[in-house]
Amino acid sequence: MTPPNLQSRGIFPPELVDSIIDHNHSDPPTLMACALVSNNWVPSSRYHLFSTVAISHTNAREFIELLSSPLCTISTAVQGMDVQFVPGSQRWFAEFTRRMNSLNKITIQSLGILGSGNTVIREEVQTAIPALAPQTKIFNVGPSVIFGTFSQFAKLLCTFDTLESLSCGCTFQNKDRAHGLRFKSPLRQVHLVTPAIKAVSEFLLAQGVLPTVSSLSLSHLVSDDYPTLTTFLAIPNDNLQSLAIKMNTSFSGTTLDSFTEAVKLTQLKALLNLSIETDPKLSPEQVSRLLEQITSDNLKSVEITMALEQGAGRVDVLLSGKFPLLTKVKIVGSAWGDARQFLPRCNAKNILQE
User: Fold this and answer.
1) Which domain of life is it from (predicted)?
2) d(Cα 159, Cα 129) in Å, to the nearest integer?
3) Which residues contact 86 (CB under 8 A, 6 or more apart)?
4) Alpha-carbon gap, residue 91 to 36, rounded angstroms
5) Residue 315 to residue 52: CA distance in whole angstroms
6) pLDDT greater than 50 at residue 6
7) What is the pLDDT of residues 292-337, one digit of tens each?
8) What stretches of 43-87 adopt beta strand conformation (E)?
9) DSSP secondary structure string, 127-186?
10) Of 347, 279, 261, which Cα lies nearest the Cα of 312?
């Protein structure tokens, strides 16, 4: 019998290889092992291993030296960069961006600005960041980051021309108004966390950008955030497809009734996915009031925190003909015993995924 061709053993369809590697996208040890299997496995493995690199004052010089080497083979895999700053000198970043641009080996599509403790972003960093902005589509500013004024942040934000996704949870020492600025990016996704919600949402609303986004997430709402949210939700909207809100009454200093009064969903004509997470849980009556306002007949998914133990009958609006495309209902924070009373209703609608 002819022995098997060992050269051909282990050759898999590219689609299968990519599927295996993609499944392990967040497991660096497995990805490193995959990269050693075959040359054909290297590009996909490196895509996940090096797609986002973490840079700080401790490794910036070494990273530039690596990119400068003729033996460097990871430059094509790098798509994003998370830059960690600490209180104190940040002058290294200006030199880092200058050398990055002179090498012209990688294109940054995702940029994260992170802080250690409460880190004030100094002027030299604010001046250097625009050098990385031309191709950046995703911009993330972490919760430990501080800007002296909001206008400084707004000016920086306006240097991004291709931004599609913004995530911001930073603090502004002075929440001044930003005047004379024009935001031009085709923003589609916005995720804001208090204390950044009020200032950033007001700016994006004034620029006419907020009503054009397709996905909006607001975490840890406080009472000061409500006026802007109410104004935004009152505008007829054919663009917003996904809305997610997290709110804790102890943190926000307001009540669930005030929250449900502020969140009016009538104008969201294109809404597909709705997620509302509160602590404490909403009552069935409060959930019913929220859902009955929805005019979109495209709603496919609802995730909501609700006290099912108070009775599920009031939320039968979920299972009525009002939402003909609804395929997923997730009730957060309810015990199995309470959820059982809701399952027969879901069964009738064939909604039993969660």
Assistant:
1) Eukaryota
2) 9
3) 56, 57, 115, 116, 117, 119
4) 38
5) 43
6) no
7) 899 999 999 999 998 877 766 566 677 677 888 888 888 776 666 6
8) 52-55, 80-85
9) HHGGGG-TT--EEEE-TTEEEEEHHHHHHHHTT-SS--EEEE--EEEE-----S----S-
10) 347
Q: How far is CA 54 from the centre of its chain?
A: 18
Task: Write b or e for each residue in 49-80: b if 16 or more Cβ atoms lie within 10 A of its Cβ, otherwise e.
Answer: bbebbebbbeebeebbeebeeeeeeeeebbbb
- The answer to whether the beta carbons of residues 285 and 256 sit under 8 Å apart is no
Residue 233 exposure: Cα atoms within 13 Å on the Cβ side: 21
pLDDT over 50 (residue 5): no
C-alpha span between 337 and 340 (Å, rounded): 5
Burial class (CB in 10 A: 0-12, 13-18, 19+), 257: exposed
Going through the chain in order, the beta strands assigned E by DSSP cover: 52-55, 80-85, 110-115, 119-120, 138-141, 145-149, 165-168, 171-174, 189-193, 215-219, 242-248, 273-279, 301-305, 328-332
Of 201, 80, 94, whose CA–CA distance to 137 is shortest?
A: 80
125, pLDDT greater than 50: yes
Other Cβ atoms within 10 Å of 162 Cβ, number:
13
CB atoms within 10 A of CB 334: 18
**What is the rounded CA–CA span in Å between residue 81 and residue 84?**
10
Q: What is residue 122's DSSP assignment?
A: -
Q: Which two three-digit tokens encode residue 107?
A: 């294109």
Q: What is the mean pLDDT of residues 123-127?
A: 95
